[in-house]
Amino acid sequence: MALSILLAAAVLQQLPTGGAGITRERLDQRPPAPVVRKPGPSGQTKVETVGNGQPIAGIAFRGAQAPVNVAAAAEAFVGRPINRDTLVELAGALSRAYKKSDVALYTISVPDQPFEKNVVVVQLAEGSIGSVDVRSNKGRPVPLLQKQAARLVGQQPLEKAAMQRQFSLMRAIPGLSFDTQFDNSGSNDALKLIVNAKQKHAQLVTGIGNRGPDLAGDLLAQARLSFYGLATHGDHLSFTAMNSAKIRRYRQLGASYSVPIGADGLTLSSNAAWVRTRASRFNIEGTAKLVSVALTYPVIRTYEQAADVSLGVDGVNSENAAFGNVIATEQTRAARLSGGFVTATPKRTISASAIASHGLDILNARVISPLAKANFRKVNGNIGVDQKVETRFSGRATLTGQYSPDPLPGAELFAVGGATVGRAFDTSFLTGDSGVGGVLELAYQPLGKGDLTKSEIYAFGDAARLSYHRRGPLPSQRFDLASAGAGVRLRYKELVELGLEGARVIDRPYPGYDGKWRLSLYYNLSL
Description:
16-stranded antiparallel barrel
């Protein structure tokens, strides 16, 4: 279980900055649901008069009935002069209020009028989508996008929740990007939605870093080749490969495939992986194999929030395989239920996830008792906060943990050390049945403009505590570790990231540990 920490530090959301493990695609290793923050269309305002200069005696709405908060926003303008500046400000205030209502598409118009009794008439129109025109690059069909966009047709008026969900699901189609336009030439209320889609069909991401898994050596090269829409629109097939500098120390091959079921976001995913390890300090060669299947459903999708639930099963067969600092020979099976939630604003992002796992004593499951239980139980949890302090300063906090009342198999242990918690230590340097770890980070983006604007320098501190249950004659144990340091992340657009970090050991996990400093370097390229 070497990747429970690494996923939180994925570079370009494709490859981890270091480390490896065949459990990466398991439900208890995945990050929370992503948030689609790119806004969609909303409303427009029109002011077609200059006014008469008299004080506003009242504001009357025509067309649609004004929501309560829109009407309240208009009251603040009573008594102000009827001139163009005031009317433009009025239309803007009403538009901001409308954005907080349930209506997705609207038009606020102040037409040319006589201003009888100094009353300003405001015309409101709440729109709907009457038809959809999906256009793809090179004319290739995009049926999933077509189905999802068609769900917006006919809703009168179109509700914000429905539009944001569908636009978010559309943007989540693997390899797809698009922009939208509205054509209101046919009707003031019923609009034609025009979607200009661009479907990517393949992507290659490569990386190298010196955060290889413990017992296998530091330097690790990795690559992922992804294909989109091979069997059906919306599917995603990827192949991964990882190798340590000394190939016999660590080799991993993996393949994953996900496919949509229907047009409401339900996704079926599967994963298979094989790894060969040779523990550096013991010269023991081992292998492990993983197969997993999961269903994921997007419960919430808006421009600022997302939540997923997933149900899955998986199995790991290992023979003298190194899982972090543990070598195990076992066959484990598990069922997992997970939920993830993310909420994001321009200044703050909060993410949380919880995963419950239960071992299944089926399909030749085998562990060595009392070292582990086949029908184990465990719960994982993660929470993270990313807060912009000023325009270029950000503060980040992450807390991750696992609890189990049982002695766990090697592939289920909680691991620290690596790219997130325990950065001065090797990846998965320590493992335990239960544990908690946290990291605080302060980052500064020195470049305000240009292709390197997302680059940053940062300082951090982290700490963790792990416990290992009693196993027969082996006593229970507890370990603590902590580290601190600083680094730089150089990012060029969404294509390249180069990282350099220095970390110092603050709290040694056990007497006799002689590590002091660690210098980490990684490089990732996305094509």
